[in-house]
Design a protein that fits this description.
The complex is a heterodimer.
Chain A lengths: L1 E10 L2 E11 L4 E5 L6 H8 L7 E6 L2 E2 L5 H7 E4 L11 H6 L9 H14 L15 H16 L7 E5 L7 H16 L3 E5 L3 H7 L2 E6 L2 E6 L1 H4 L2 H8 L3 E5 L6 E5 L1
Parallel strand pairs in A: 3-8, 3-9, 6-7, 7-8
Antiparallel strand pairs in A: 1-2, 1-4, 4-5, 9-10, 11-12
Chain B lengths: L6 H21 L7 H11 L10 H35 L12 H16 L10 H23 L1 E2 L2 E2 L1 H25 L2 H12 L7 H17 L4 H9 L1 H6 L4 H23 L5 H13 L3 H25 L8 H20 L2
Antiparallel strand pairs in B: 1-2
Classes of the chains: A alpha/beta, B mainly alpha.
């Protein structure tokens, strides 16, 4: 699927990323956690081909990312940046439809995919509104629908990368959006999500990576990663780890 | 598409507006021809066999004076509006103007060099001066734009923010040099410098028309092929890249396109402001921001509005003529303010 090997990114004298290796697997959601400035977005930029690593390589479906033609790559790799700036009055449905630009699937199929992606991101009721009239959280959902539409219906071999997709959402939407990402991944795509909320990560990710100062600290399933020791080392935060009473995943409580 | 006005109806109205503007531009002037006469003469010129008695004068005026002037206005208006759309897309800002990348000020600099310089070359044949002016203006516009583009590049990437600031700095620099030339110029030279800076379709000739017409056609055929890329670019450069577009190439193409288009327009007509800013803005209100509709709509409206402004420039103080840049600014600036207040950008 998507493999990053020994990724190192240097900016002048600063090492933004050092020896990070990871593998995104079909049907799984991979979470990246770490304090501000830990290199999470740099990692995402490197994995998506926007930033060339100083060392190491990224393989998409076994082929180096740089060997892919732009359009071909866009058909199986979609990226949601932290914040998108759009200052033109497109209709929401037209913004989401831009996700279909790399494809030649025809107007009918595109319209169906766009509608399905909007429904998944809970943006369908916004379809005819102007993008500029929306709130920050609504805009975030529209862009999520756009990147979902880019890969819809989702199949093995595709990769979805999301940089803090829940940062502007209310609690109910944080959960519904991550559920939608899980459901999308269940159709075969691999997903990488940068998150700040440890409990959301515990609940919705299959595997996690903790980053600090550009270095990987721990990687593995939530049960192994979300323990008091590594969390103190990475975030400098003293926490209690309990079990979720109904679902059984780790529950992180600050002391 | 999400256009507030049905696209087909709008294009019909814009087409009609352009035809009316062309007709008025052919018929009106210091020597007003009867509207019917000018229509008949125009039809004869394009080969329609119409009984022509007493149309000889109309035909002569049309063929030698008004037709090149009308086509020049059409082409300049269309290409300025198209390049305005391209720059607003490149800078992802509805308030961007084609002059932002320094092409207008570079052309003004080139023109100033040509106007003031030609007074120092006594042997210059009289007929050469306008061509020398056009060539210098074109080269100046192209040169400054390429310099702005170079300054905006770092590590193989073009930073549009840096380009914007470099454009502002070089515009100021070019303005200072033009100012210096004006200071050094004698009265006659100063007058032609001033007139050139205000823009005019006066003195249109086929020789001046052809280069602009060819570049306008090229730009009008090429830009719509990049309509989807421009749409994606509005989301952000990184988003466009992730949608499979070669963003660096598109940015380069947009800059080259604008430098050629605006450079040729300014070289042929002088500085005509506000068309490149107001027309795309107005069309966006009518058809929405989708470039697949916005580009052709802006080309049609730009041509029409420039022609109508030129007709006004010819008539207001007839038999004398106002520089057209004054008309477009007088009409464009208040209209732009109105849009600004209405929309609360």
């Amino acid at each position: 699927m998507l493999v990053g090997r020994d990724l190192t990114v240097r900016r002048g004298a600063i090492t933004a990323l050092q020896d990070v290796s990871l593998e995104l697997r079909p049907g799984q959601v991979f979470g990246v956690l770490g304090p501000n400035g830990a290199g999470k977005s740099t990692l995402l930029a490197t994995l998506s081909g926007e930033l060339r690593p100083s060392r190491g390589q990224v393989l998409l479906q076994g082929r180096p990312l740089g060997d892919w033609a732009d359009v071909e790559r866009a058909r199986c790799l979609a990226v949601l940046p932290q914040s998108s700036t759009l200052s033109f009055a497109f209709r929401v449905a037209d913004v989401v439809a831009m996700g279909r630009l790399p494809h030649r699937t025809g107007r009918g199929a595109d319209a169906a995919f766009v509608a399905a992606a909007m429904a998944a991101a809970d943006a369908r009721h916004l379809a005819t509104r102007s993008y500029l009239e929306l709130s920050g959280g609504e805009r975030q959902r529209v862009h999520l629908a756009r990147v979902l539409a880019q890969l819809w219906p989702g199949e093995t071999g595709q990769v979805l990368m999301l940089d803090e997709p829940t940062s502007m959402l209310d609690p109910a939407h944080q959960h519904s959006i991550l559920k939608a990402v899980r459901a999308f991944a269940a159709q075969g795509a691999a997903a990488l999500v940068i998150l700040h909320d440890l409990n959301l990560a515990a609940r919705y990710c299959d595997r996690l990576l903790l980053l600090k100062d550009g270095r990987p600290i721990v990687a593995g399933p939530p049960d192994e990663v979300l323990q008091a020791e590594p969390l103190r080392a990475v975030f400098g935060l003293d926490v209690l780890v309990q079990r979720h009473p109904e679902l059984g995943h780790p529950l992180i409580i600050a002391r | 598409m999400g256009s507030p006005v049905p696209a087909r109806f709008l294009f019909f109205v814009l087409g009609l507006l352009l035809l009316v503007a062309i007709w008025l531009s052919l018929a009106l002037g210091p020597l007003s021809l009867a509207l019917g006469d000018s229509l008949a003469a125009a039809l004869r010129l394009v080969g329609v066999p119409i009984e022509a008695s007493g149309l000889e004068q109309a035909e002569l005026i049309l063929a030698q004076i008004r037709l090149p002037r009308t086509l020049l206005g059409c082409a300049a208006g269309a290409v300025l509006a198209l390049c305005g759309v391209a720059m607003q897309g490149l800078f992802r800002n509805p308030l961007a103007d084609p002059g932002l990348v320094g092409v207008s000020s570079g052309a003004a600099l080139g023109a100033a060099v040509a106007i003031v310089g030609s007074t120092f070359i006594p042997a210059l044949p009289a007929g050469w001066e306008p061509y020398l002016l056009s060539v210098f203006a074109f080269v100046g516009g192209l040169g400054v734009t390429l310099l702005v583009y170079r300054l905006g590049r770092r590590d193989g990437q073009t930073h549009v923010g840096t380009m914007l600031l470099a454009g502002i700095a070089l515009t100021a620099l070019a303005g200072a040099v033009v100012g210096l030339f004006s200071y050094l110029a004698d009265d006659r030279t100063l007058r032609s410098l001033t007139f050139w800076n205000l823009g005019s379709l006066n003195g249109a000739s086929y020789a001046r028309l052809w280069p602009l017409l060819l570049i306008t056609i090229a730009v009008a055929l090429w830009l719509p092929r990049r309509a989807k890329a421009l749409n994606a670019l509005l989301l952000g450069e990184s988003e466009a890249r992730h949608l499979g577009f070669d963003v660096e190439r598109i940015k380069r193409e947009l800059v080259v396109c604008t430098a050629l288009g605006v450079g040729a327009a300014v070289a042929a007509t002088g500085l005509i402001g506000f068309i490149g800013l107001v027309v795309p803005h107005l069309m966006r209100l009518l058809v929405g921001p989708d470039h697949r509709l916005l580009l052709p709509a802006s080309a049609l409206a730009g041509g029409s509005l420039l022609l109508l402004a030129d007709v006004a420039a010819r008539l207001v103080i007839a038999p004398a003529e106002l520089p057209i840049g004054i008309v477009t600014a007088l009409l464009g600036a208040p209209f732009f303010l109105y849009l600004l207040l209405r929309e609360r950008l």
